Amino acid sequence: MSCPDCFRGAVHAHAEPTGKIETVHGIQTYVAGGSDPARSQSAIIYLPDAFSLKLVNNKILADKYASATGCRVLIPDVVYGGGMPVSVLEKMEHLMGSSLSVANFLPKAYTVLTLLPHAVPFMLWGHPKNPYPTILKFARDVRAELPAGGKLGVAGFCWGAWPATKLCTEPAVEGGQARLIDAQFNGHPSYIIKEPHMVVDAVKAFQTPYASAVAEKDFQFNADVAAKTEAQLREALGGSKGDGEGGYVYEFRVYKGATHGFCVKAREEDMQHYHDAAKQAADWFNKYLN
């Protein structure tokens, strides 16, 4: 996760979290919605960005998904160290917000020093592959307790897009034939750009509907990378355009002008992109989970 925008953005105050923290299958988890089974029998596992449950934005967005879909939405506390401190957002904004000059050299140098104790351990040990076995077990446990007819979706953002993508390649039970994930959505993904085959595997393994909200100006998974990924998918899937041909469904929607983090940490000027991406996710899950 080398993109500076991974650690930048706004703290949202447009809503208050309405869910609650519970222990779900042994993991501290934010639980949103799911109180009305008449609306939906399905669940969505929300795999967050690097700030995890420490950032209120993730809880607000989980509530938004739950309200729009009727699904129970779960954010397990699986990010390294419980997530980056929210104070990192302000420090990174200060560091990246203006060009280096003689006048601000010392303040910026001090900011770098205060960031290092958080950033260095995360860079060394924070890759989602490390807690992935825990995430996989959690997903299988959630799947196993769904009522008859219930489906399981997964949403992943930045850090969380890697495990969300990989979960699409897994069977519901080890060695089984049925898929674990019925629909996947991710926003401004990180890490998978270094493993482009992951997206092909995710779509091909169990024909899981796969959607992504792409920031046009992302330092990592931007409009150009999305186009190349889609072309790679078409080639690997025998020319399928992702519209259901051959049983494959996928979508890469590019948000013009958006930068990395817009699905979760959008600043005021980018809130329309934020709301549009939330609607994209809700429409996707309503189509494939309900």
Task: Please characterize this protein's 3D structure.
With 290 residues, the chain is an alpha/beta fold. 39% of the residues lie in helices and 15% in strands. The protein contains 9 helices and 8 strands. Strands 1-2-4-3-5-6-7-8 form an 8-stranded mixed sheet, with helices on both faces. The two termini are 34 Å apart. It comes from Cladophialophora immunda.
Task: Please name the defining characteristics of this protein.
290 residues, alpha/beta, Rossmann fold, eight-stranded mixed β-sheet, 9 helices, 8 strands, 39% helix, 15% strand
Overall average pLDDT: 93
Report the structural category: alpha/beta
The CATH H-level superfamily is Alpha/Beta hydrolase fold, catalytic domain
Under CATH, the topology can be stated as Rossmann fold
Poorly predicted residue ranges: none
What's the number of domains?
1
Strand content: 15-25%
> What is the number of beta strands?
8
Helix percent band: 25-40%
- How are the strands ordered across the major sheet? 1-2-4-3-5-6-7-8
The largest pleated sheet is described as:
8 strands, mixed
Gyration radius (Cα, Å) is: 19 Å
CATH architecture: 3-Layer(aba) Sandwich
Assembly state of the chains shown: single chain
Distance between the termini: 34 Å
InterPro entries: AB_hydrolase_fold, Dienelactn_hydro
Organism: Cladophialophora immunda
Pfam family, one: DLH
Protein name: Dienelactone hydrolase domain-containing protein
